[in-house]
Write a sequence for this structure.
């Protein structure tokens, strides 16, 4: 399938997800916050069920029969294959679609902050397919109730990023010029460690503080503060890097849980579906890697815990990454 056509299809799919979520919110928000299920991947809320239904309906009606795909998405029954056209054997599919219909569910449920719909498409390589194989990606904002616009970003590997802002009143689109920060350090900017839950928070905060000491960033001592803004959405974190708002993000929760012996911590960590659109950040000029500096190669599933780091530009990566590795190597 032509990569540009695939990019447009992913954007149209996410337009349908956004429309379904916004329509459900108009009908009432209280019921959307109810827990619908608890799986090995995550807690599933009623609002997630709305988006999951929209995904399957849209794929059934619109995905090209000449490009059969396997869908990987949290909330699906694990004892059956999910392919489109329906009934296609997994071995006969040509593409693997990793999808997070709503990344940032909690923030959206309580109308605190936008969530994001994330999608990554890779040539089918069976169980060997990883994040590094994704060639087309899209991410679409699911905005709060007071928002009048929503952003949509998409990319084909090697062709840069297409960014648009959609007017929610009439559907009109205009091109956006989003650029990551060109800063060469984090002083007076936003740089964050993801530590959303009580579990592992002290361990993560200690490494965060140690990194800034390692780099000589100490607002109390010499007026070089660094600001923390935790966006409870991996897609949102990537968007903040792409848009030039943040300079650095580290999500080291899997490392913390492993070091602390928290066997159940995997459910509270970032998963491959949260990072299925990281191609867009790299196409924008950001650096997204594992904490050791290697490319992300997690399998396209819904349960593998993934630690990752994101830098707004290569200069920041060269400055911060070695210091972070030294901090993590210490006992």
């Amino acid at each position: 399938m032509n990569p540009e056509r695939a990019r447009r299809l992913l954007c149209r799919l996410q337009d349908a997800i956004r429309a379904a979520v916004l329509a459900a919110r108009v009908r009432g928000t209280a019921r959307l916050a109810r827990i619908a299920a608890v799986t090995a991947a995550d807690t599933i809320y009623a609002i997630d069920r709305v988006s999951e239904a929209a995904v399957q309906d849209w794929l059934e009606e619109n995905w090209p029969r000449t490009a059969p795909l396997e869908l990987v998405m949290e909330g699906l029954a694990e004892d059956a294959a999910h392919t489109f056209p329906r009934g296609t054997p997994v071995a006969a599919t040509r593409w693997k679609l990793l999808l997070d219909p709503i990344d940032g569910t909690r923030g959206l449920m309580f109308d605190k902050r936008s969530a994001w719909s994330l999608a990554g498409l890779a040539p089918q390589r069976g169980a060997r397919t990883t994040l590094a194989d994704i060639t087309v990606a899209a991410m679409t904002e699911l905005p709060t109730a007071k928002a009048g616009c929503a952003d949509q970003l998409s990319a084909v590997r090697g062709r840069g990023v297409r960014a648009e802002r959609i007017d929610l009143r009439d559907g009109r689109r205009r091109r956006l010029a989003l650029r990551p920060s060109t800063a060469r350090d984090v002083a007076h900017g936003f740089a964050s460690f993801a530590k959303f839950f009580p579990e592992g928070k002290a361990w993560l905060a200690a490494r965060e503080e140690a990194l800034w000491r390692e780099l000589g960033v100490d607002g109390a001592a010499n007026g070089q503060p660094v600001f923390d803004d935790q966006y409870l959405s991996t897609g949102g974190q990537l968007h903040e890097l792409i848009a030039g708002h943040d300079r650095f993000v580290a999500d080291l929760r899997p490392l913390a849980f492993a070091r602390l012996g928290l066997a159940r911590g995997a459910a509270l960590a970032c998963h491959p579906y949260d990072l299925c659109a990281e191609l867009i950040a790299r196409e924008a000029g950001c650096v997204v890697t594992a904490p050791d500096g290697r490319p992300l190669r997690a399998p396209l599933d819904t349960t593998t815990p993934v630690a990752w780091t994101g830098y707004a530009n290569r200069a920041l990566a060269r400055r911060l990454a070695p210091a972070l590795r030294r901090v993590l190597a210490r006992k």
